[in-house]
Amino acid sequence: MILIGRSIWVPPRRWKLWSLPRPALCYVLGVDAVALMITAAAVASTVSGGVGHAEWLAFGVLTAASILHLESARGIERRREMAANTSPYTNLKSLWVFAGLLLLPLSLVVALIVISYSYSWIRVYGRTIAHRKVFSASTFILASAAAAATLRAGGLVTEPRVPTGPWQLVVVIGAATMWWLVNFALVIGAILLASPDTTARSALGNLADQLVVVAGLGLGVAVAALQASYPWVVPILMVTVLTLHRDLLLPQFQRAAGTDVKTGLATPAYWANAVPAELARAQSLRSSVGLLLLDLDKFKEINDTYGHPAGDQALRAVGESIRAEVRQGDLVARVGGDELAVLLPGASESELLEVAGRIRDRLSALSVAVETTNAKNAVIAGVPASIGAAVYPDVAETMDQLILAADDALLSAKRDGRNRIVAARPNPPGSTESVSG
């Protein structure tokens, strides 16, 4: 038995780990196994060499600061976690881990990682997939081992390994770069193997988000330097850390705050604010905006046959499939129970219909493995959708007109037999034309 999130016990045979594709399963278990071997070797080295009083003190300070940081920011982190699925999830845990690398033996760095992830699993993430957190902790351990090896290779062997000259600074920067590269590469590999349909561009996520990790590594150097020389200044630095946490993660937090927790798509409220803003931008640029409204044709049957949890799994798979067929700047939202919408800035009608065709074909061929209400596994083969399409300013001049035109086209698609794409026509207003069957 294992505890998944808070108050949910799941037998080993039902762990979500086993539902991963075989290559992803082998990869995740391999990374976890290597992390365990590194941990064992680090512990053995520490037992033979011992740990000094100053190192235990630094470990206590960093552990307490890490927990305080997580507790203070857990509301933000919990919302951001909901949005992370097929792209790297960035956070500031690297701050305390890298500070530990400069002050502590590797075994205590591993202990810091385990404590940090265990606490955040219980207090921050809530009910989530346990193997993902174990894997994340493992990537931190592998990245830390690579960074520690870089420090030793550069001549920084004994703690504290705070830079005191130009060469030491170069070595520390090299170690920080190594830590980031190893962790980032391991996470990207897992995403691509677990979601074969995910494009490399989508898996990389927004590279600007990696500035959060870079900032964390830089702050880690500062924390280590203060802890080594002026430990009583570290609590004062915590105020700066918490402030920077909010500012650095604000763009991600804003995205997460507008994210539907079941699907990872934008919420209706976020959508309602985004559409008029995009139309105003298009008007100033004399550009266009494409809108697709989708209604899943078999969604009620899925809920009735397999249960609502299975329906939620199918809906999330649908959202991921749609996002895989649109550009990074396009917005995909859940605007109702089984109603989805896609906003495509700058799209012409031909481009909009091309995207709609790809989405329809992908959903028709979609295969989703779900767990039914009686704890049995099942496969949903195909989640077809009816799609209505409309383009601003071709068929509408306002947000309401654009949505009404796309909704009328969607109704026509459903009346014409479902699993169809219908485009709104400009003349007369609100008229539609079926473009595929």
TrEMBL record:
The record's section on SUPFAM superfamilies has:
Nucleotide cyclase
Q: Record's CDD domains?
A: GGDEF
User: What keywords tag this UniProt record?
Assistant: Membrane, Transmembrane, Transmembrane helix
Task: Please name the GO terms that the record assigns under molecular function.
Answer: diguanylate cyclase activity
Residues annotated as domain GGDEF: 287-426
Query: TM segments?
Result: 20-44, 96-122, 134-155, 167-195, 207-226
Q: Which PROSITE patterns match?
A: GGDEF (PS50887)
In terms of domain of life, where is this protein from? Answer: Bacteria
Write down the NCBIfam families for this protein, in alphabetical order. GGDEF
UniProt-recorded name of the protein = Diguanylate cyclase (GGDEF)-like protein
Question: Organism source for this protein?
Answer: Kribbella jejuensis
